[in-house]
Amino acid sequence: MRRPLVAGNWKMHGTRASVAELIDGLRKQEWPVKVDVAVFPSCLHIAQVVEGLGDKAFAVGAQNCAVEPGQGALTGEVAASQLRDAACSMVLVGHSERRQALGDSDQDVTSKFAAAQSCGLTPVLCVGETLEQREAGQTLEVVGRQLDAVISALGIKVFAEALVAYEPVWAIGTGLTASPEQAQHVHAAIRAQLAAHDAQVAGGVRILYGGSVKAANAAELFGMPDIDGGLVGGASLNADEFGAICRAAGN
User: Fold this and answer.
1) 14 pLDDT more than 80
2) Interval 81-108 mean pLDDT
3) Is 177's pLDDT higher than 90?
4) Catalytic pick from 45, 95, 129, 187?
5) Residue 34: is its pLDDT beyond 80?
6) Could you give the domains of the chain?
7) What is the DSSP letter of 35?
8) Got the DSSP string for 51-113?
9) 238-249 burial by CB neighbour count: b if 16+ within 10 A, else e?
10) Predicted TM-score of the model (pTM)
11) Residue 119 phi, psi (nearest 5)
């Protein structure tokens, strides 16, 4: 039985004051004991979040890491080893906003995935299609290619210590959400692609759904057999809403 995980991606949001307020709100929530919870603040606020939630059973992750695992001459980047030193345990790789706006290629994403694991971080591989690709019937082809880039380069066994997050690009921050059936269809295809290489790994990997997840739709989404939790964007900036989503995963 896969244990659900709900992760909050705070993206490029937060000041020291607003993060302190959010931490205070999170500390007041009732958290389900059968659900793992993680938050991904901006790099500027990782230390503040680690300190503020250190006595809670929260994982703290980063939103990105450099392609090289160790420190070096790469101005503006943060190495996975530095994130590990800052008490992160997870990192997002391949988020669509980075793929589209910042040009992260499948090769870049694979390098970041490997760098994260080499430093003891759990990578969360983000995959997903645009609206144009969905309308052209290319969803499974696009998602499959993004997944296969990592499998081909690093092997299937790396997914024993990783997560996958399916985030349809057209549903991120738009208010649109894939129906539970649409999301389940893609999640099942991801698991089948992994199972074609190793059924045991595929059965154990947690696949999260992201894309305008909120308390109102969480329970129905998380009720699907291959959806193991959520990667929550905007709603994770509201402690009450995020707490409600996590409790939905517990039910």
Assistant:
1) yes
2) 97
3) no
4) 95
5) yes
6) 5-250 (3.20.20.70)
7) S
8) HHSTTTTEEEEES---SSSS--S-TT---HHHHHHTT--EEEES-HHHHHHS---HHHHHHHH
9) bbebbbbbbbbb
10) 0.97
11) -105, 10
Rounded mean pLDDT, 170-193:
91
Is residue 80 within 8 A of residue 116, CB to CB? The reply is yes
Residue 173 has pLDDT above 80, yes or no: no
DSSP classification of residue 151: H
Average pLDDT of the chain?
Answer: 96
Establish whether 187 is a catalytic residue.
no
> CB-based contacts of 166: which residues, under 8 Å, 6+ apart?
127, 128, 143, 183, 186, 187, 190, 207, 208, 209, 210
Q: Could you tell me the end-to-end alpha-carbon distance of the chain, in angstroms, rounded to an integer?
A: 14
Residue 234: phi and psi, rounded to 5, are -55, -35
Active-site residue, selected from the candidate residues 97, 167, 187, 241? 167
User: Which region, left, alpha or beta, applies to residue 94 given φ > 0 means left and ψ of -120 to 50 means alpha?
Assistant: left
